[in-house]
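[job 4417] fold queue: 2 targets
>>> target A
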Amino acid sequence: MTQTLRILHVEDDLSILEITKISLSLSDRIKLFQFSSPAKALEFAASEKVDAFLLDVAMPEMNGGILLQKLRELEGFETTPAIFMTAHAQHEDIVRLEALGANSVITKPFDPVTLAEKVLRIFERLTQNNPPERMPR
């Protein structure tokens, strides 16, 4: 994959937001758009295209599952890969997130050194399973 991966990241914990920003900046293949507010992220997504969503699950304003549902209602994002980040990653939690539309789950705490590589691997795996013409650009 040589394209730049445009990721919409939504996380209400400002320290995790910053750690994720630093972690993903280790790759020149990722362009990150971050929001601590799901509502602001929705506003952004209504006018910008991204290749993937990286979403916190537990947020007070709007949980990640509802946010993903609202993002998928926007034109062009119906099949955009969604990766949830959560501290609750028991089997039943992952099954519930997959039912909400998650393509993958990253457990918190995560390794900041390997996060970018992990996200790129997940995206590459997902795009290999979907023809490129179905992926929004």
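>>> target B
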Amino acid sequence: MNTTQKHLSISDIVDNILLLKDGGGALVLQVSAVNFGLLSYREQIAIISSFAQMLNSLSFSIQIVVHSERLNISSYLTLLDKAQRAQTNPLLSGMITEYKQFIQSTIKENEVLDKKFYMVIPLFSLELGLTVSKVTLEQKIKTVLLPRRDQIVRQLARVGLKADQLTRQK
């Protein structure tokens, strides 16, 4: 029987670090977003420059992953319905109706997406050399990846972004 695990390159997760089947490792950071379109031209240029400096300062590879998902607003619309039914003021009830119609038309006309941003910091097995035991391998991976993580987190903070390492559950 084929399972998903057979197709993934992850063998285990130890202390929130991915251990790969090829003997390497990786960790994943979830990075906050900036509404770039709302920034002034000068702020946009400053962020682009800072991000470029961060990328140029790295001596190791990273992977940037953007996960886009259509936003499901049905629960929000249900909440608005409840608020409208509970509203005794007819003027406010009418405003809620107009707002709900505005939200529904905005969703129909524009594709509203929920985006999550991740940064993967890989460690290739060639960078680790030969190891005699799994414990030694795990320690080597932590010794290399944790300083890299800290460097990325500091550099992203300079750009105005917050990065948190994903836990095993996430």
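[job 4417] complete. Note on B: Residues 134-159 form the longest helix (26 residues).
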